[in-house]
Design brief:
This protein has no helices and 16 strands. It is mainly beta and about 170 residues long. The N and C termini lie far apart (about 40 Å).
Length: about 170
């Protein structure tokens, strides 16, 4: 609701959870215990929202709304991440496995010459894998030896990338 809200999901056999933060800086944490068959949706609003997913599988949706939002993905599953207007960050941390992959769509759109936002992909916490990322591509791009599949909805929607400690290749979209 209105104001700053916080929720943590620890359930093993949850079918569906929706968290509506509305105005305020809201946070949702999905723990490692969140179930493989869970469908979780977080709808923020005006404010700097934070979504952290440590879970194992399931489908996830994050819509941060207005504000400088952050989404952290450390678990497996299918993710639809949309920060909305503002300077948003999508952070990928830990190690990912092709046996239980994270399939992520980042829905960030370039709104034209007046779009002053700086949206960022941050892979600095990625363990044991280098990047081969093309910001000008809206095709699915395997990262972390296929354990992390990243699709950008708009080939001009991401402005910044923080790389791993490895030998990364990042192609820009200018």
């Amino acid at each position: 609701g209105e104001g700053s809200d916080y929720a943590r999901i620890d359930g093993h056999s949850l079918a569906s959870v929706e968290f509506h933060g509305e105005a305020g800086s809201d946070s949702l944490v999905v723990s490692t215990a969140a179930g493989v068959k869970s469908a979780i949706a977080f709808v923020g609003g005006a404010g700097d929202d934070v979504y952290i997913d440590l879970g194992a599988g399931g489908s996830r949706a994050f819509d941060g709304g207005d504000g400088d939002d952050r989404a952290v993905v450390r678990g497996s599953g299918v993710f639809q991440l949309a920060g909305g207007p503002g300077n948003d960050a999508y952070i990928f941390s830990g190690s990912f496995s092709p046996l239980a992959p994270s399939i992520v769509t980042v829905a960030e759109a370039f709104a034209g010459p007046l779009d002053a936002s700086r949206d960022r992909l941050d892979f600095s916490g990625l363990i044991g894998a280098a990047l081969d990322l093309n910001l000008a591509s809206a095709a699915a791009q395997p990262q972390a030896a296929g354990g992390l599949m990243v699709t950008l909805s708009d080939a001009s929607g991401i402005e910044d990338v923080v790389v791993t400690p490895g030998a990364d290749i990042v192609r820009g979209n200018d």
